[in-house]
């Protein structure tokens, strides 16, 4: 599993470092991999965090985060189940708001701004 974040965005980098510290494997920067080789749409990956699942499927946004959490410790697996299941639509809404305003969040910079 690969969860790919934008290393040029301070907010994204900080969030990714939390996931790594909490034991989520496979967290990598988008800049460190060949996006087309993984079957990723580079433009979409610039707007929504992608995850490449073990079976090769690609998911984006809140779903990607929920899938990545499945590989962490138990408390994160529960959170991942909630994000992928009963809380999928509110998680997607929160994700869209955070992504849109990530340049204004702690660690965010002008590079974090989405086009």
Description:
The structure is a single chain. With 115 residues, the protein is an alpha+beta fold. It has helices spanning 10-21, 42-47, 62-69, 74-84, 88-100, and strands spanning 2-5, 27-29, 50-52, 58-60. The protein has one domain (2-106). 43% of the residues lie in helices and 11% in strands. Strand 1, helix 1 (10-21) and strand 2 form a beta-alpha-beta unit. The model has no long low-confidence stretch (mean pLDDT 90).
Query: From N to C, what is the helix and strand string?
Result: EHEHEEHHH
Largest sheet: 4 strands, mixed
Order of strands in the sheet with the most strands? 2-1-3-4
Q: Overall pLDDT, averaged?
A: 90
Write a brief structural summary.
With 115 residues, the chain is α+β, with helices and mostly antiparallel strands.
